TrEMBL record:
It comes from Candidatus Merdivivens pullistercoris. Keywords: Signal. The lineage of its organism: Bacteria, Pseudomonadati, Bacteroidota, Bacteroidia, Bacteroidales. This is DUF4249 domain-containing protein. Residues 1-21 form the signal peptide.
Length: 301
């Protein structure tokens, strides 16, 4: 059985709960003595090839010694900003709307603008004294040749992706994963960031489950009854740098013996966060169906 590219309307949110907004932004912490920083604008935005721009805006949260649930991000959402994207030809004004499928639960988007491979997109955000700009590009999408389902211990299964890289300089890739019925949006696949310069002739990459912030009990493999949506994105160097720093910071955040106090590289001028372009292709794998039929090698159309 061949697997077709996913053409359903699947939410392509960036994968993670907005990391900048939930992080502790302080210049120093010593026990109960905390030095507070001025609030900063947090931008989390992306545009897929064939998709519309999605932008989430919030303010950084002041540190607290008390537990705060992730839903507190909604209290810091910016709901009255002017957000525009220029594609080199005209400005598109993004309209804000409530959407409980995102966190924070307010998004700016525009149905009139569709991302195109090779396009260059300039984001501008204005909100009171805050003014932020960023630029991103959308590389040409790269398609997966085939997937392989691999039995693991404890009745779990791994998913491996195979694709060909043209070995040209500046190829970077990112996997995102969404479990239907469990995840509202795409999550950043654990160890799912790839630098094309280190790829061999036969590229096999494990596609692990997505990373959730804050970390819960992480399970990298899949249950046999799960339906897995996979987004494979060709990204530029700026987006690669962001995700590289994010992955490193998330890994250290899991370890209670490490105090995390570092910044993630950002392309936002006037704020924090990222504005990323993705040359994206989406796939859907119904594990129960493929396992039942013995289809462990899944060609892609």
């Amino acid at each position: 059985m061949k697997i077709k590219k996913n053409t359903r309307c699947v939410m392509s949110i960036l994968a993670i709960l907005p990391f900048f907004a939930v992080s502790v932004f302080c210049t120093g912490c010593d026990g109960d003595n905390i030095i507070y920083a001025e609030p900063q604008l947090v931008v989390e935005g992306w545009i897929d090839s064939g998709g519309h721009p999605i932008v989430l805006l919030s303010k950084t949260i002041q540190p607290s010694m008390d537990y705060q649930d992730m839903s507190v991000l909604n209290d810091y959402a910016v709901r009255d900003a002017k957000v525009t994207v220029n594609d080199g030809h005209k400005d598109y004004v993004l309209v804000g709307r409530q959407d409980d499928n995102y966190l924070p639960d307010y998004v700016y988007t525009c149905d009139d603008l569709t991302g195109k491979p090779g396009g260059r997109y300039v984001l501008t955000v204005e909100n009171g004294d805050y003014h932020a700009t960023a630029v991103t590009t959308i590389p040409t999408p790269k398609e997966i040749s085939f997937f392989e389902i691999e039995p693991k211990a404890d009745s779990l299964y791994g998913i491996n992706a195979f694709f060909e890289d043209d070995k040209s300089a500046g190829n970077y890739y990112k996997f995102f994963v969404r479990i239907e019925g469990k995840d509202k949006f795409y999550l950043s696949s654990f160890l799912g960031l790839i630098n094309g310069e280190v790829l061999g002739d036969n590229t096999e990459v494990p596609v692990y489950k997505g990373v959730k912030i804050p970390w819960d009990e992480f399970e990298s493999f899949y249950h046999p009854d799960e339906v897995v949506d996979i987004k494979f994105a060709h990204i530029d160097k700026v987006s690669y740098d962001y995700w590289s720093d994010f992955d490193e910071l998330a890994s250290f955040s899991r370890n209670p013996f490490f105090f995390v106090d570092s910044k993630i590289r950002s392309n936002i001028d006037g704020g924090q966060g990222y504005w990323a372009g993705y040359g994206a292709v989406e796939y859907r794998i119904d594990l129960a169906e493929h396992i039942r039929n013995g289809d462990y090698i899944i060609p892609c159309e």
